[in-house]
Each structure stands twice: as structure tokens, then as C-alpha cells.
Amino acid sequence: MKLEHTALNVPDPKAQANWMVEHLGLKLVRDLGEPTFITFVADNDGALLELYKNPKADIPDYFQISPYTLHLAFTTDDLDTTKAGLLAAGASDTGIAETLPNGDTYVFLHDPWGLSIQLIKRVAPIL
User: Fold this and answer.
1) Is pTM, for the whole model, over 0.90?
2) Looking at the domain assignment, is residue 127 inside a domain?
3) Which residues contact 11 (CB under 8 A, 6 or more apart)?
4) Domain span at residue 44?
């Protein structure tokens, strides 16, 4: 088997996908429209994220979910500049920043809909 995608039930999939494309460097790969607005975005390596609004399930209050419970992680070589750009684009700062024992450094932000975004500068790539 191969992991295909991760899916999130969100309040405004189209707007959130567009924000991710514009500010996180993802690309729109599929947009199925109404009624659930199923939208797929991907990074350059093909990691897929499905955003949809499905009335069969509650939409979590992402602002209330700890970033340590759920987050999307993005690597960056410049935490401060990347963080500042996302804050200017409507993200909010969680106040969480840490340097791990191996030297990796990260911060957590919320996108405009509350989903936690981790920006991480790794000493060495995982893959």
C-alpha cells in the first residue's frame, strides 16, 4: 500500500486551499465543487491534502486543538522571514517556539481558519 492523502473537514475548503496555494507554496490538483467542495492540494513531491466541508461530520474548532495534537509541518531555511510573511497573510502566532535537542527549530502558527501550521528548520532533512 501507499499513503495517498490526509483529509480535513474544514469550514471553507476553497478559501483555505487558495490560501495554502498562495502562501504555503502548494498547488491545486483537484477541485470537485459543490456540495462538499472537495479540494486537493499538493506539494512539489506529491504529498496530497484533501480539504472538504462534509455535513456528515462536525467541523472541528481548529483554534482549540493543540498544535501538538494536529498540525501541518513545512520546512523552511528562514523561520523569521517565513513566519512574518504568513502573519502578514492572515496567520496568527500561537506563541509556541522551540529548539529541539538535535538543533531543529520550530514555531507554530494558525492559518486564518485555525489549523495549526508548523514551520520547522531542520539541521538535516528527514527524507
Assistant:
1) yes
2) no
3) 53, 59, 113
4) 5-52
The predicted-structure confidence for 3-54, as pLDDT tens digits, reads as follows 999 999 999 999 999 999 999 999 999 988 777 789 999 999 989 999 999 9
Q: Look up the CATH number of the domain holding residue 79.
A: 3.10.180.10
pLDDT tens-digit map of 44-99 = 998 999 999 999 999 999 999 999 999 999 999 999 999 999 999 999 999 999 99
> For residues 39 and 13, is the Cβ–Cβ distance under 8 A?
yes
50 within 8 A of 7, measured Cβ to Cβ: yes
Mean pLDDT score across all residues of the chain: 95
Each residue of 70-98: b (16+ CB within 10 Å) or e?
ebbebebeeeeebbeebeeeebeebeeee
Chain CA centroid to CA 59, Å: 16
